[in-house]
Amino acid sequence: MLLPALKELGVTVAARAGRSIVGNAGALLTRVLYHKQTDAKTFVVVDAAMNDLVRPAFYDSYHASCP
């Protein structure tokens, strides 16, 4: 859609895929090390950390967990 307008302007535009496109392209595989059940919550300790999948913390996004 942009190409006709850009050709009229005679400019060169460089673009690359952003986080909205490539952010969903990865998967984090991890192993459960410890499981603790309380009356209020269930805690699961895994062998991965927030630095391994940092996107949710930065962008208030959600990554589903599945077995």
Question: How is this structure best described in words?
Answer:
There is one protein chain. The chain is α+β, with helices and mostly antiparallel strands and 67 residues long. Helices cover 24% and strands 16% of the residues. Strands 1-2 form a two-stranded antiparallel ribbon. Strand 1 and strand 2 (42-46) form a beta hairpin. The chain is rod-shaped and about 65 Å long. The protein starts with a helix and ends in an 8-residue tail after the last helix.
Helix-strand blueprint:
Blueprint: H1 3-9, H2 19-22, E1 32-37, E2 42-46, H3 55-59
Antiparallel strand pairs: 1-2
End-to-end Cα distance: 41 Å
Task: Decide which structural class fits the backbone.
Answer: alpha+beta
Number of helices: 3
The neighbouring-strand order within the major sheet is 1-2
Based on CA atoms alone, the radius of gyration comes out at: 20 Å
Helicity, as a percent range: 10-25%
Q: Please tally the β strands and state the result.
A: 2
Low-confidence segments: none
Main beta-sheet annotation: 2 strands, antiparallel
Described by the principal axes of the CA atoms, the overall outline is rod-shaped
**Could you report the average pLDDT, rounded to the nearest whole number?**
79
Taken in chain order, the helices and strands follow as HHEEH
Please provide a brief summary of the model.
This protein has helices spanning 3-9, 19-22, 55-59; strands at residues 32-37, 42-46. The protein has 67 residues and is an alpha+beta fold.
